[in-house]
Amino acid sequence: MRTFLLLGAAALPFAQGIRVVQSNDDGWSEGNLRTFFDVLNSAGHEVVLSGPAENQSGTGSSDAPPTTVDSDGCIHASCPGGSPPTGANVTDPRLNYVNSFPVTSIKFGIDVVAPKLWNGAKPELALTGPNVGGNVAIQVPFSGTVGAAVYAVKTAQIPAIAFSGKTGDPTAWNASTTLHSRVYADLALNVTTTIINSGKPYLPANTFLNVNFPAVSDTECNNLSEFKYIFTRINIGLLSARDADWCGSTRLPWETDVVNRDGCFVTISPGDANDKTTVNDAAVQQQIITKLKPILSCL
Ligand SMILES: *[C@@H]1O[C@H](CO)[C@@H](O)[C@H](O)[C@H]1NC(C)=O
Ligand SMILES: *[C@@H]1O[C@H](CO)[C@@H](O)[C@H](O)[C@H]1NC(C)=O
Ligand SMILES: *[C@@H]1O[C@H](CO)[C@@H](O)[C@H](O)[C@H]1NC(C)=O
Ligand SMILES: *[C@@H]1O[C@H](CO)[C@@H](O)[C@H](O)[C@H]1NC(C)=O
Ligand SMILES: *[C@@H]1O[C@H](CO)[C@@H](O)[C@H](O)[C@H]1NC(C)=O
Question: What residue ranges are annotated as transmembrane (predicted)?
Answer without folding.
Answer: none
